[in-house]
Design a protein that fits this description.
Helix content is 34%, strand content 22%. The relative contact order is 0.20. By secondary structure, it is of the alpha+beta class. Helix 3 (71-89) runs antiparallel to helix 4. The model has no long low-confidence stretch (mean pLDDT 93). It has a 5-stranded mixed sheet. The protein has helices at residues 33-36, 40-52, 71-89, 92-100; strands at residues 4-10, 13-21, 26-28, 31-32, 60-67.
């Protein structure tokens, strides 16, 4: 079995994953997936590709390094790299992931809009103008 390296981004979070043969262990920044993402909503979101793959993911160990962004962005980046790695290791999963949610395999490239000068700290807020 070859080792598979994949990376994925969401907002400003970047995740890099290494997939090897193993017994279904997922490590994120040296911690278990449940320990790194204890929030149920985030954990459930990340678990979607694992549930869709059935028992396939139990043949591999996935080690993930994630940097930048907040917890939501990191969770989405981790979800993306898990799905990409499993799809690369097992090609029939690719179609199933695409049918379920395209963003399991294709990065969501939206970024927050930068703030402009004289906009009261908002990207598009303007100084109120009075005509009389």
């Amino acid at each position: 079995m070859k080792i598979i390296h994949v990376s994925g981004k969401r907002k400003t979070a970047i995740a890099r994953a290494t997939l090897r043969e193993g017994n279904g262990g997922i490590i994120v920044n040296g911690k278990s997936l449940r320990a790194y993402f204890p929030e149920k909503m985030l954990y459930d979101r990340i678990s979607e590709p694992l549930i869709l793959s059935g028992d396939t993911f139990k043949k591999y160990n996935i080690s993930i390094d994630v940097r930048g962004g907040g917890k939501n962005g990191q969770a989405e980046a981790v979800r993306l790299v898990i799905a990409k790695a499993l799809a690369e290791a097992n090609s029939p999963l690719r179609e199933e992931f695409m049918r379920y949610d395209r963003h399991l395999l294709v990065a969501d490239s939206r970024q927050r809009e930068p703030r402009k000068p004289n906009t009261h700290g908002n990207a598009r807020g303007k100084v109120q103008k009075s005509y009389r």
